[in-house]
Amino acid sequence: MSDVEDCFDAVVVGAGIAGLYAVHELRARGLRVRGFESAAGVGGTWYHNRYPGARCDVESIDYSYSFDEELQQDWTWSERFATQEEILRYLDHVADRHDLRPAYELSTRVTAAEYDERSGRWTVRTDTARTVSARFLVLATGVLSATTMPEIPGRDSFAGELYHTGSWPQHAVAFEGKRVGVIGTGSSGIQTIPVVAETAAQVTVFQRSPNYSIPARNHPLTPEYVAEIKAGYAERRRLSRISGGGTPTSPHPRGALEVDAAERTRIYDQWWERGGYLFAKAFPDQTTNLAANDTAREYVEAKIRELVHDPEIAEQLIPDDHPIGTKRIVTDSGYFETYNRDNVKLVNLRRTPISEITPEGVRTSDAFHELDLLIFATGFDAMTGSLSRIDIRGRDGRALRDEWSAGPRTYLGLAVAGFPNMFVVSGPGSPSVLANMVLTAEQHVDWIASCVDYLGENRVSTIEATEDAVTHWVAECNANAAATLFPAASSWYLGANIPGKPRVFMPYLGGLGKYRAICDDVAAAGYRGFVLG
Ligand code: N01
Fold it and tell me: One MF term in GO for this entry (predicted)?
């Protein structure tokens, strides 16, 4: 006998930016939708990443929903780069404004989803012992949501406070008078370290790989500026949707090597003063031509040498293992300057690796660092981690984990052969993390919702990507990546941060505008590359 308790038209997994909008759009079409979210509240990434200093590196006026004109007129962002707290407040507001909460079961993790060929429906199971069935399965599980903790001997023996930036506790964490260790110097570590250093007695930064980082130049937004943005939102959003990265910015019309040195410096000065990771896009050839990249790299390295007083420390903070921009450039607030403080110490793990963690602290090959509090800013099993933690089974009981054992294989990042009526939002094979995640999520959800309309209008029960279409799309994604410098970095884009994970460049590098046109074209051609049944 079936153990299904409830039947829905669609199950949406996740209540982050993508999941909330998916519930909104599918419900607006009259579908019975059930959302599941493992956290106790909505917000996804912005619910969990409440570490000190957490803020978005995309400008708030762009990193916000565009689907609701009244919302974007009513909501006023206070700063150029919004804090985690403000973004979470915004997402809570959207959930209430559109009455999305009743569609969700919170504190409920989806553990398994299985496609039943006879009924053409998905059976979805949760860790609260719920079993429901749905025609459509929408996986809005997040791209950077499955946190990783490195396997360091003795890790769990640490007797002080221990936190991961990506699953920061709800309660306030005090650093006053404490000896704090931070492992990891990606975006999360680089944002956390200066804020912790303001109050901690001592901060010890355990750095394995240095990263490029550009000052945010964050500031409050004036009422005049906000009014101007709101008056021009329609055009700003139009330009963002057709852009490569989902914001209305464009690089210099000529390549870095096509202009003279004075012009190059003038442009880099402009982007440095403007602040933030978009420095990677000053010139169009920065991430495709190594000599062009070198000019950007050398510019930023000179800035790091200016910012850090101790030249020996400055050299250790300069990356030497990847072209600039092939890992996400960090957008920071006073990061390099933090090393000028007396209470901040850099431990270079390339020279003196960690040998163990003990109840009292961290032992490296040459010293013991006594700590009261240890922060892991060690990142995520990106793009596939949140999917592979669910036991997803398609036709013939095929497991998604097995299908992707040599790397993720999708059609348009949206669909997987052998998994009918299942959609992934911002998944591998889509622009995802390489563009403004709010607009990429809206694009995916809009496409999925139109597809659901089409199936209804044409009395089609199932839609499934063909193996051929998947093979072609994977080849297209690989070709795009191979034409750039991105594969030269051991980044999480490639899965390189997870031991044993296949090295496949996961995001689609052709840009959001081009990607949108491809998806629209596929739909206009009667869902080319899909089998409709
Ligand atoms: O994670 P990461 P993150 N011993 O993987 C180190 C987005 N984001 O959470 O490079 C010692 O980048 C690891 O070292 P290495 C953004 O897209 C955005 O910081 O592997 N160290 C690295 O330094 C970002 O790219 C925002 O040698 C170890 C660090 O941990 C993405 O999320 C804010 C180690 C992990 O860096 C991920 O950023 C935050 C070990 N055993 C995040 N294992 C904004 O919008 C790992 N590390 C601003």
Answer: hydrolase activity
pLDDT of the residue at 175: 98
Label residues 414-425 b or e (16+ Cβ within 10 Å = b): bbbbbbbbbbbb
Summarised one tens digit per residue, pLDDT across range 96-136 is: 999 999 999 999 999 999 999 999 999 999 999 999 999 99
Q: Which residues lie below 8 Å from residue 423, measured CB to CB, with a gap of 6+? A: 136, 137, 138, 139, 414, 415, 444, 448, 451
**Whose Cα sits closest to atom 26 in ligand 1?**
187
Q: Which residue's C-alpha comes closest to atom 35 of ligand 1?
A: 378
Instruction: Tell me which of 148, 193, 432, 497 to substitute to probe ligand 1's pocket, judged by most ligand atoms within 8 Å of the beta carbon.
Output: 497
pLDDT band at 161 (very low <50, low <70, confident <90, very high): very high
Ligand 1 atom at shortest distance from the alpha carbon of 144: 32
pLDDT digits (tens, 9 = 90+) for 208-233: 999 999 999 999 999 999 999 999 99
Burial 148-186 (b: 16+ CB within 10 A, else e): beeebeebeebebbbbbbbbbeeeebebeebbbbbbbbb
Q: Is ligand 1 within 6 A of the CB of residue 53?
A: no
- ipTM, 2 dp: 0.99
Question: CA 208 to CA 287: how far, in whole Å?
Answer: 23
pLDDT bracket for residue 316 (50, 70, 90): very high
Cβ of 379 below 6 Å from ligand 1: yes
Ligand 1 centroid – CA 366 distance (Å): 24
Q: Whose Cα sits closest to atom 5 in ligand 1?
A: 379
Nearest protein CA to atom 31 of ligand 1, as residue: 187
381 Cβ inside 6 Å of ligand 1: no
Please say whether the beta carbons of 193 and 187 come within 8 A. Answer: no
Angle at 264 between CA 258 and CA 270, to 5 degrees: 135
What pLDDT, in 10s, does the model give residues 289-310?
999 999 999 999 999 999 999 9
Segment 261-264 long-range contacts (CB within 8 Å, at least 24 positions apart) = 264/295
187 lines ligand 1 (CB under 6 A): yes
Selection from 256, 254, 322 nearest residue 289 by Cα: 256
57 lines ligand 1 (CB under 6 A): yes
Average pLDDT over residues 405-426: 98
For the Cβ of 497 lying below 6 angstroms from any atom of ligand 1, the answer is yes
Q: Pairing between strand 373-376 and 179-183?
A: parallel
Burial class (CB within 10 angstroms; exposed 0-12, middle 13-18, buried 19+) of 52: buried
Average the pLDDT over 64-87 and give the result. Answer: 98
Residue of 48, 144, 213, 426 to test ligand 1 pocket, by largest number of atoms within 8 Å of CB: 144
